[in-house]
Design a protein that fits this description.
Helix content is 40%, strand content 12%. It is built from 9 helices and 3 strands; from the N terminus they run βββααααααααα. The chain has a 3-stranded antiparallel β-sheet with strand order 1-2-3, with no helix packed on it. Helix 1 crosses helix 8 and helix 6 runs antiparallel to helix 7. The chain starts with 9 loop residues before the first strand and ends with a helix.
């Protein structure tokens, strides 16, 4: 078999090194998959998140998406915030208002996440991750897409991760109850969140429903 000349395209691919707590980014030949050199690395420790019966999975299933897409949406939800590791330390846990520069860093994290997932195995997931902070009213980021241009899968990730974030403890506030988080989703339906996705999510994100799904 002829040896690859690595003359074609290359992609930056992320490799997580759990023992070192780092994300390593390498340049990979698109033709043969060989690693061609390091691009960058950064410290990263993912917080524990459920893989099976993730809120994005349950919501996608409630919307009637096919099994393959449900799996890929779940993967997108698990990976959508890896770019937050590039936000300056302390910004995400800051008490009080962010500066314009800090907001700009936060708004860039979907782009960072998508760039970190540049390999061919993420071709479908990458646009969803890039758009998961876009809003139906056009006031989202990073590009301010209007509602009709936001992929449904991105909207599922948006709703599911918002619910997950609201029901988790944060430095500036304790976790909201599932009921309070559901109320916040309802308040944002049609503006911050896709209304049809919120309707689907509210039917499956109660603790009782998630418990039955896990069983």
């Amino acid at each position: 078999m002829a040896q690859c000349a690595h003359a074609g395209g290359h992609s930056a691919v992320g490799r997580y090194l759990p023992e070192a707590g780092r994300l390593r980014f390498v340049l990979v030949c698109d033709s043969c998959g060989a690693e061609r050199g390091d691009v960058d690395s950064l410290a990263y420790r993912p917080r524990a998140r459920p893989y099976a019966n993730h809120p994005a999975e349950l919501t996608a299933r409630a919307l009637g998406l096919d099994a393959h897409t449900v799996d890929r949406v779940r993967l997108g939800a698990l990976l959508c915030d890896i770019g937050a590791a590039r936000i300056p330390e302390g910004v995400l846990e800051k008490r009080g208002p962010l500066t314009p520069a800090e907001w700009e860093a936060v708004r860039r994290h979907p782009e960072y996440s998508a760039a970190m997932l540049a390999g061919a195995g993420y071709t479908d997931v990458r646009p969803w991750i890039l758009a998961h902070h876009e809003r139906p009213d056009g006031r989202g980021y990073p590009t301010g897409l209007p509602g009709p241009l936001i992929p449904l899968e991105a909207s599922v990730i948006s709703v599911a991760t918002a619910w997950e974030g609201m029901t988790s403890d944060r430095a500036h506030r304790p976790a909201l109850s599932p009921e309070a988080a559901g109320h916040e989703l309802s308040r944002g339906a049609g503006t911050q969140f896709d209304a049809a996705v919120v309707d689907a999510a509210l039917g499956v994100l109660s603790p009782a429903v998630i418990g039955r799904a896990a069983a």
